[in-house]
Specification:
Length: 71
């Protein structure tokens, strides 16, 4: 099985993931996770609002930068 990148299914939602062999850990698309766990019609906006409301979460999730494409 190719562990470099997979799409994991959570119920009916696809969650993009990437295996980093150097760090030996998985990375997941946060927007895909938000989509799978909420009924939001705009998960990017939902995540932005969530980060603005909770400063500690905003620091944990990372820098406030535009969303970049994930293959």
């Amino acid at each position: 099985m190719d562990q470099l990148s997979n799409i994991v299914l959570f119920e009916d939602n696809g969650i993009r993931s990437h295996w980093d062999a150097d760090q030996e850990e998985w990375f997941f698309s946060v927007v895909d996770v938000v989509t799978a766990l909420t009924d939001s019609t705009n998960p990017t906006y939902y995540l932005k609002k969530l980060r603005n409301r909770d400063e500690q979460l905003g620091d944990y999730v990372g820098t406030r930068c535009p969303q970049v494409a994930m293959v």
